[in-house]
Amino acid sequence: NGIMYSEVRRPCRVLLLLNPHSGKGQALSLFTGHVQHMLQEAGVPHSLVVTERQNHARELVREADLSEWDALVIMSGDGLLFEVINGLMDREDWEEAIQTPLGILPGGSGNALAASIHHYAGSQPVASEELLVSCGFLLCKGLVARLDLTSVCLGSGGPQQQRLFSFLSLAWGFVADVDIESEKYRHVGAARFTVGTLVRLASLRVYQGKLAYLPAESAESPGPSPTSPSSSPPEVPSPQTHATSPHGFCSSLVCRSSQRSPGQNVTNTFHNYCNSNNAFKAKRGDLAPASTPRGPPDSLLVPLDQPVPSDWTVVPEEDFVLVLAMYQSHLAEDLHAAPNSTMEDGLIHLFYIKAGISRATLLRLFLAMEKGAHLATNCPHLVYAKVRALRLEPYSAKGTITVDGELVDYGPVQAQIHGGLARLIAS
Ligand code: ADP
Ligand code: MG
User: Fold this and answer.
1) Is residue 290 domain-resident?
2) Atom of ligand 1 nearest to the CA of 405
3) CA 295 distance to own-chain centroid
4) 87 alpha carbon to ligand 1 midpoint, in Å?
5) Residues taking part in catalysis
6) 403: β partners
7) Total domains in the fold of the chain
8) Which pLDDT score, from 0 to 100, does residue 8 have?
9) CA-closest candidate to residue 111, choices 126, 91, 96, 94
10) Strands 401-403, 382-394: parallel, antiparallel or unpaired by DSSP?
11) How far apart are alpha carbons 134 and 119 in whole angstroms?
């Protein structure tokens, strides 16, 4: 937002969180070797914090005085950004905190968001250090755009219920198993997914459960229409294109709204959630009580112990090889899994593969995915739908579900997209 950034003090301060164990364990030397001088030349002062353990970044961001920072940038794989986003959403002032511009520098083995923003910038696919340099350049440019987040509810209700915020993916079956099993191949970097895929193909299995979703075309946008006079979003700045000022990084942290079809202003829809719910009418600084659930309400979901609403589609099959929900284009540096996705299309791109697919066909699908060509193979076992919410109820007591590549509690899960809830330095 132009007004906000014209007020930002200079020099702009970036908090850079780096996981030294991500990827091949070289994130720190990659940073000093490839990015540090770029930031210096672009006049982007930064404080580097090397994380000491899992959840260090999440705790730090949860407690931080965010007025001290103009952007939070992570150098790691997707797992560290997952920590940062959930740290921001843990806060009582989540609504303001999640407006903090985020940035990503690929230093991990799973660099899906970095590959996605590189792709959105219109660049040809690259890997490893080249991807890092590309993302370093985007960071120096400093254009901020909206990023969709998905709220993920785990557990069948009651006290064990857990809510997470996800920026990338929700996976069950083949992809989730590869995600977790391949962690032991982290030393080979991004190639860990190729190795993991081949290993999993050898022991291909079927996963049983119930899947349902709310198709995007039938979903009404929640809350009043964005043009409704009652829906004034006073607190959260709306994404307006703003000319880049020549005064360096801070003034070039401008918000850019992606193109969308008329009547589909998802960012305003988020404002409307807040306006339509008394719990979210609090003014800035007027913090909600500790018991108030964090984050916008999930207006499309009903409790997990109730049947899905009648406008949802219940998938007839119950035998799957994988279920994969994506909200960005790339699942890994070389897996262009959701070619239609954009940063804030307000959509969950849902893929599932029905049981009965041969190993050879599944391998062909993954090979085609490198170029985003898997949908064009017209594989009868692969189903793709654009949805706004979904529910998955695995039948087995044990198994693996991943959110943004991270292991989460196994069991029934449901999720809903919140268009443009976060902001990301990209373009
Ligand atoms: P990669 O892509 O290599 O897996 P991630 O950024 O996804 O890299 O990080 C992997 C895991 O390490 C995540 O679960 C993250 O929360 C965790 N983590 C972050 N910092 C540290 C640390 N200093 N030591 C150990 N684990 C960490
Ligand atoms: Mg998307």
Assistant:
1) no
2) 7
3) 15
4) 15
5) 78
6) 170, 406
7) 1
8) 38
9) 126
10) unpaired
11) 10
* Structure tokens that stand for 317 in this block: 């099959």
- Give yes or no for a contact between 31 and 80, defined as CB atoms under 8 angstroms apart: no
Burial bucket for residue 13 (CB in 10 Å: 0-12, 13-18, 19+): middle
Give residue 110 CA to ligand 1 midpoint distance, Å: 10
Q: For ligand 1, is residue 78 a contact (CB within 6 Å)?
A: yes
Residue 188 lies in a domain: yes
pLDDT at position 231 is 33
The reply to whether ligand 1 has any atom less than 6 angstroms from the CB of 52 is yes
Cα distance between residue 45 and residue 66, in whole Å:
16
Dist. CA 21 → ligand 1 center (Å): 6
pLDDT at 220: 58
Q: Answer yes or no: is the ipTM higher than 0.95.
A: yes
Q: Are strands 254-256 and 143-154 parallel, antiparallel or unpaired?
A: parallel
Residue 265's alpha-carbon distances to 95, 272, 418, 425, in angstroms, are 18, 11, 12, 20
Most informative mutation of 16, 19, 105, 179 for ligand 1 (most atoms within 8 A of CB): 19
Domain of residue 174, residue span: 152-218+302-420
User: Does residue 340 fall inside a structural domain?
Assistant: yes
| Residue 360 forms part of a structural domain | yes
Distance (Å, whole) CA 419 – CA 345: 7
- Residues 393-423 as b or e (16 or more Cβ within 10 Å = b): bbeeeebbbbbbbbebebbbbbbbbbbbbbb
Q: In the prediction, which pLDDT does 221 show?
A: 52
How many CB atoms sit inside 10 A of residue 219's CB?
A: 20
Structure tokens at 277: 């719910």
Q: Is 51 close to ligand 1, i.e. is its CB under 6 Å away?
A: yes
Counting as low any pLDDT under 50, the low residues of the chain are: 1-10, 222-290
- The answer to whether residues 319 and 354 touch, using CB atoms and an 8 Å cutoff, is yes
Residue 202 Ramachandran class (φ > 0 left, ψ -120 to 50 alpha, else beta): alpha
CATH code, domain with 208? 2.60.200.40
Residue 406 Cβ < 6 Å to ligand 1 = yes
pLDDT at 219: 60
The token duo for 358 is 């041969």
- Tell me the helices (H) and strands (E) count for the chain, helix number first: 12, 16
